[in-house]
Write a structure and sequence with these properties.
single chain; alpha+beta; seven-stranded mixed sheet; two-stranded antiparallel sheet; 11 strands
């Protein structure tokens, strides 16, 4: 997740007045950064990993697993631990981690406290630090809560009580038929971004993942769980105007994409030439690693014919207007 600073995000109608200014100055800033760093030579490679967790609370009595929405409280405790460790060199080794909020109020992101370098001893440190982070996260969780490294929560958006505490769907930001705004991170950036994507698009996002057909799946598959009430003007689009496609699993909120988790690796190369080589090597390796680690085959309780989260993420932040999508 990028830099989270304090401020008041703009409504899209206000923000679009400054769109040309932002584009122009974005290019100027990039060129200035390029001029300042293009000849930079670092001492060594720096890199690190980011692990995103979903915090799940177990209800043993009723045999239910729910997404816990109290990660903000956990983050505050972890931040205190970091601050104390920064003042005490002896404790710093025991709390060698850094914690950050993510899009979902049930999501937790942990990184090493300091970047790794290009030495064999750094490779040997990775697994130990991952284990340390999990132990630190659990330290501030309730006995029935667990940080799970799961790509896509299989029952996100299903009817029933899947959140702890429970909230009904709908909300002014996402206007979703399936998930409440209460699962979005409390930082103003996230609900505003969610609402502004919908405002610019002129409708809710429409995510459609192909259903997996077995002998018991009707053809065409028309999802019977899509609500038919019209709380918001765009809700009627789902079935009446084709936002929900036949033979597909329909989702209508940014949370279905940005609420997914992953393991990320970030590199800072020695120089631009090394960065180019790393980038070129990742181009063929990335799809292979993605196929080997495919871990997102279920959405809203349905088995999909796709096992990767990428198309869900792309569709969840698609803010293109009808004209830009070629519909007008």
């Amino acid at each position: 997740m990028g830099l989270l600073s304090l401020g008041t995000p703009m409504h899209w109608d206000e923000a679009k007045k400054y769109a040309d200014h932002v584009r122009a100055h974005g290019i100027i800033q990039f060129l200035n950064l390029w001029e300042a760093t293009k000849n930079s030579q670092k001492d060594c490679l720096l890199w690190g990993d980011e692990i995103e967790y979903m915090v799940v609370s177990y209800d043993e009595e009723n045999k239910k697993a729910k997404l816990s929405l109290r990660v903000w409280e956990i983050l505050q405790e972890l931040a205190k631990e970091e601050e104390e460790a920064a003042k005490d060199p002896a404790k710093k080794l025991l709390v060698n981690s850094s914690w950050h909020p993510e899009y979902g109020r049930y999501m937790l992101e942990g990184t090493p406290g300091e970047p790794y370098m290009g030495l064999p001893r750094d490779l040997l440190e990775v697994e130990r630090n991952m284990k340390l982070r999990r132990e630190l996260a659990c330290k501030f969780m309730k006995p029935n809560e667990v940080p799970i490294t799961l790509t896509s929560y299989p029952r996100l958006g299903c009817a029933g009580e899947g959140l702890d505490p429970h909230h009904d769907p709908h909300g002014p930001a996402a206007r979703s038929l399936f998930v409440p705004d209460d699962i979005i991170n409390a930082h103003a950036r996230f609900p505003t971004l969610t609402a502004n994507i919908r405002r610019r698009r002129g409708a809710k996002v429409a995510i459609n993942m192909p259903i997996f057909h077995d002998k018991n799946t009707p053809k065409p598959f028309i999802d019977p769980t899509i609500p038919t009430y019209n709380d918001y003007p765009e809700d009627k689009n789902a079935i009446e105007q084709g936002a929900a496609l036949p033979d597909h699993i329909y989702m209508d909120a940014m949370a279905f994409g940005m609420g997914c988790c992953c393991l990320q690796i970030t590199f800072q190369a020695v120089n631009v030439e090394e960065a180019r080589k790393i980038y070129d090597q990742m181009a063929p390796l990335g799809p292979i690693m993605l196929a080997l680690t495919a871990a997102a085959p279920i959405y809203r309780g349905y088995l999909s014919d796709v096992d990767c989260r990428w198309n869900v993420i792309a569709q969840s932040v698609d803010d293109r207007t009808e004209e830009e999508r070629g519909l007008k």
